[in-house]
Amino acid sequence: MNINRTVYREDHEMLRDTARRFFERECLPRQAEWDKAGRTDRETWLKAGREGLLCVTVPAEYGGGGGDFGHSCVLAEELHRSGVSGFSLSVHSDITAPYIVRFGTEEQKQRWLPKICRGETIMAIAMTEPGTGSDLKSIRTTAVRDGDEYIINGSKTFISNGMNCDMVLVACKTDPKAGSKGVSLIMVETNRAGFRRGRKLDKVGQPAADTTELFFDNVRVPVDNLLGEENKGFVCLMQELAQERLIIAAYSVAKLERLLEQTIEYVKERKAFDGTVWDFQNTKFKLADIKAQTVAARTLVDYYIGEHMTRRISVQEAAIAKLFATETLWKCIDDMVQLHGGYGYMLEYPIARAFTDYRITRVFGGTSEVQRDLISRKL
């Protein structure tokens, strides 16, 4: 019942092999260290850059891989299939860097992208604020023009790569009275006066993900750091969020497939009542349901990956992919935890780690409720 995945080419699969070896060799042995430190180490970022695993879709003339969206998906799939937790490569490469490629000036691309592609500059994107959540048009961080500079004031929360980042793409209001039509995107280097990182947030899962609060207290940045047009940032965000949601869908299905494999192995080995857990009809029926849902999720998401490799996916299509993939993942994880019994609650088992690490997929990138709203607008 293995699916013939026709969405990827030979060059995609070559990258998959390279990525799998890298994550197994360079990341998994460091996982316990990262979890304890609450962040990934910078040397691994630099190694990923040297291996060509950062910014694989950024044009080669700026130091990137010059690939397409399929290369991004392959990397995301292998990262999450490997069991590595908290290494926010997609935030850096597939969510933040594309804003510079798509909306940046030639000078901005030449100035920023080579170091980003090498891993010398780690990126974060700052949209969410305390009290706003998914409601981006209601953000309150402001950027006031003062001559050749913007003065930024406000705060952001739940920022991935927040402790490690060297540069942040900040969504802020340049016209506070204009709602979504007053949002702009400004690049802020973290060594600027007035920028401050808050506490590392104590999350339910992903302890190695350096998620934190960011504060801007009269941070001055040159007007040249404006990305795209002033007051046009909300439109940019809506265009790029579709890709972010599809990436989440892609790795959610990859993780589900791996967890199903591991659960089947477990129930066939686990002894219970003079047999194995596999011998119970309930176990087989549960796993049959999970297999069917996994195949459905894989088929749907691969279709949308193929669509996005040839054209920009619509907001509604990306919402369908993310909603179905993440909701399916969570329901199946819950069922597989149950099949593990008490061991399903022990973090030494992959299913327990997934139980804490992947609940967030139904929240970040836009909650499931936001995805349903987006889908319903086209009904």
From TrEMBL:
InterPro entries: Acyl-CoA_DH_CS, Acyl-CoA_Oxase/DH_mid-dom, Acyl-CoA_Oxase/DH_mid-dom_sf, AcylCo_DH-like_C, AcylCo_DH/oxidase_C, AcylCoA_DH/ox_N, AcylCoA_DH/ox_N_sf, AcylCoA_DH/oxidase_NM_dom_sf. Residues 124-219 form the Acyl-CoA oxidase/dehydrogenase middle domain. Keywords: FAD, Flavoprotein. Residues 10-120 form the Acyl-CoA dehydrogenase/oxidase N-terminal domain. SUPFAM superfamilies: Acyl-CoA dehydrogenase C-terminal domain-like, Acyl-CoA dehydrogenase NM domain-like. Residues 231-378 form the Acyl-CoA dehydrogenase/oxidase C-terminal domain. Its cofactor is FAD. Belongs to the acyl-CoA dehydrogenase family. This is Acyl-CoA dehydrogenase family protein.
